[in-house]
Design goal:
By secondary structure, this protein is α+β, with helices and mostly antiparallel strands. Helices cover about 45% and strands about 25% of the residues. The chain is built from 4 helices and 6 strands, in the order ααβββαβββα. The chain has a 6-stranded antiparallel beta sheet, sandwiched between helices. α1 runs parallel beside α4. The longest helix is centred in the N-terminal third of the chain and has 34 residues. The radius of gyration is 16 Å and the shape is globular. The termini are far apart. Bound molecules: methionine sulfoxide. Methionine sulfoxide binds next to α3 and β6. The site of methionine sulfoxide has 15 residues, from α3 and β6.
Length: about 170
């Protein structure tokens, strides 16, 4: 009996992962089509935020925090979709700050267990933040995505979101 239940669970997880991959494949193609030939960073960030937000029902907040060129180790809100986002984030705070400081993607299954999490909206329960580098490898922003569900994000999100930001901003 337990074996059968385990098999059903594995099957459902497999179907859900395949669906996520399929959506990413589609939205990556849309983003490539919209941003190809567009050199304006803000315009591309706005398009990416819109298309990712529309593609995934679980995405509650999608947007970019830009490296502020005038204030060291500080991020300032850029284009986004969702409820009001915090205006500025120090590299020493939050999931965004951790991604900016380490240069590594942060996946948080439960934001309430993340020390220093910044709750721009109390409805957020899980989050992924992807560093964005330009063609010379300099950090220019982070892509922040919040979900109202717990454990929304996994290695598939990391792989595809890194692929998308590298496709657009490292060209
Ligand atoms: N939760 C983020 C802050 C940005 S809001 O989610 C839009 C953080 O902890 O860095």
């Amino acid at each position: 009996m337990l074996g059968a239940i385990n098999s059903v669970i594995r099957c459902v997880i497999g179907v859900l992962m395949a669906k996520k991959e399929s959506i990413y494949r589609q939205v990556e193609a849309e983003i490539k089509s919209v941003t190809e030939g567009e050199g304006n960073t803000i315009a591309n960030m706005a398009s990416i935020s819109c298309l990712l937000n529309m593609a995934f029902d679980d995405f509650f907040w999608v947007g970019f925090y830009l490296v502020d060129p005038d204030i060291e180790d500080e991020l300032v809100v850029g284009p986004y979709q969702g409820t009001l986002g915090c205006l500025r984030i120090s590299y020493n705070r939050g999931v965004c700050g951790a991604a900016a400081k380490t240069g590594k993607t942060q996946i948080v299954d439960n934001v309430h267990e993340f020390t220093g999490h910044i709750a721009c909206d109390s409805n957020t329960n899980s989050e992924i933040v992807v560093p964005v580098h330009n063609k010379v490898g300099r950090l220019i922003a982070v892509l922040d995505i919040d979900s109202t569900q717990f454990s929304t994000f996994d290695h598939i999100d990391k792989l595809w979101l890194e692929k998308i930001v590298n496709m657009v901003f490292k060209k």
